[in-house]
Amino acid sequence: MSNSSAGQRQSNVGIVIVSHSPLVARGAADMVRQMVGDGVPLAWAGGNAEGGLGTHVAGIQAAIETAWSEAGVAIFVDLGGAETNSEMAAELLGPARAGRIVVCNAPLVEGAVVAAAEASGGSSLAKVVATAEELSP
Amino acid sequence: MQLDAEDISALIVLCRAEIDRHGEHLGLLDSAIGDGDHGTNMRRGLNAVFTERETIAALPLPAALERIGLVLVMSIGGAAGPLYGTLLMELGRGLAPDANAAAFVATLEQAIAAVARRGRAGPGDKTLLDVLYPVQAAMLERSAPERIADCALSAARSTEAMQARRGRAAFLGARSVGHEDPGASSCALLAATICGYFAERRPS
């Protein structure tokens, strides 16, 4: 399951939120939108193919497509399977795009909000990721 | 490893039946140390491969393996999807169409290494790798299929004593000890099924 709310400025780094729970993913995306505005492409993927708890590659791929930006995409994940599936989804999009997708080592909610704020100012993918990853212990 | 369309199709049918037969048990194992969906996820994955079996079986073995891997990635979900998917996709990518048994074993080693990188896990972490490593070692020794199957099943049982360091089970720490790892279990069932086929069709 994924939802889209693509931003108006596709030149900014995109943000993707991936959680085992569709509610968590959607809620975090909603929080980003309310706090940061619509200056960044944003999408979420949550739940398995049947809508239950879990993550699945096709949903994550769809979210990356939705939030795609030539500047790249930063992905925020909750538990291990979300990370593994996000990496797989990125690789399956081909090396050209995979090279501009980073699965961040940062808390899901705080990371996504901080990254989106950084991205909305036009920062590079490296800078967006670094800002979010500063939150990691 | 000259497998024709009939072999590939038969192996898909057998693997799907085996996972279906043990789906509930895999779910119970996963309930003990994970989130309980391994049986459901594996059934979904093998059913998706089964649905495509005629198309897949018509491909040369490397392409068939790669396609099976992709179907598993897209259908299993969770952590098992990318792990099984990586194993088969890497195996398919690395295998020449006319590869002999030795080349197959060497490529399998590369594919297992890719699974370890994907899951950031190694030996003794209580994952499917604890079945894959001994299976690969037994193949390297050119063991008989029956022997490799036994090795896979006993390797899965041996994960019971391990403490999980990767995946959801790692959150349980010491409480993960005493339960067989569901990923190791499904992996052993599949390996034993494949070996069983070779034992019957192609005695070595």
TrEMBL record, chain A:
Catalytic activity reads: dihydroxyacetone + phosphoenolpyruvate = dihydroxyacetone phosphate + pyruvate
What is the enzyme's class at the highest EC level? transferase
Give the record's subunit note: Homodimer. The dihydroxyacetone kinase complex is composed of a homodimer of DhaM, a homodimer of DhaK and the subunit DhaL.
Q: What are its E.C. numbers?
A: 2.7.1.121
Which residue ranges does the record assign to the PTS EIIA type-4 domain? 12-137
UniProt entry keywords in alphabetical sequence:
Kinase, Transferase
Gene Ontology, cellular component aspect: membrane
Q: Which InterPro entries match?
A: DhaM (IPR039643), DhaM_N (IPR012844), PTS_EIIA_man-typ (IPR004701), PTS_EIIA_man-typ_sf (IPR036662)
SUPFAM superfamilies xref list: PTS system fructose IIA component-like
**What protein is this chain from?**
phosphoenolpyruvate--glycerone phosphotransferase
Give a yes or no for keyword Kinase in this entry: yes
Q: What Pfam families does its record include? A: EIIA-man
User: What is this protein for, i.e. what is its function?
Assistant: Component of the dihydroxyacetone kinase complex, which is responsible for the phosphoenolpyruvate (PEP)-dependent phosphorylation of dihydroxyacetone. DhaM serves as the phosphoryl donor. Is phosphorylated by phosphoenolpyruvate in an EI- and HPr-dependent reaction, and a phosphorelay system on histidine residues finally leads to phosphoryl transfer to DhaL and dihydroxyacetone.
Q: What is an example of a GO molecular function annotated in this UniProt entry?
A: phosphoenolpyruvate-glycerone phosphotransferase activity
A Gene Ontology annotation in the biological process aspect, one of them, is: phosphoenolpyruvate-dependent sugar phosphotransferase system
UniProtKB/TrEMBL annotation, chain B:
- PROSITE patterns from the entry? DHAL (PS51480)
Boundaries of every DhaL domain copy: 6-196
* Keyword RNA-binding annotated: no
The signal sequence is: none
Record InterPro entries? DhaK_L_YcgS, DhaL_dom, DhaL_dom_sf, Dihydroxyacetone_Kinase
Q: Which GO terms describe its cellular component?
A: cytosol
**GO biological process terms, semicolon-separated:** glycerol catabolic process
Q: Which UniProt keywords apply?
A: Kinase, Transferase
Entry annotated with the keyword ATP-binding = no
An MF annotation (GO) of this entry: glycerone kinase activity
The protein's matches in Gene3D superfamilies, at most eight in alphabetical order, are given as:
1.25.40.340
Q: Which PANTHER family match?
A: TRIOKINASE/FMN CYCLASE (PTHR28629), TRIOKINASE_FMN CYCLASE (PTHR28629:SF4)
Q: Return the protein name.
A: Dihydroxyacetone kinase subunit L
Its encoding gene is what? dhaL
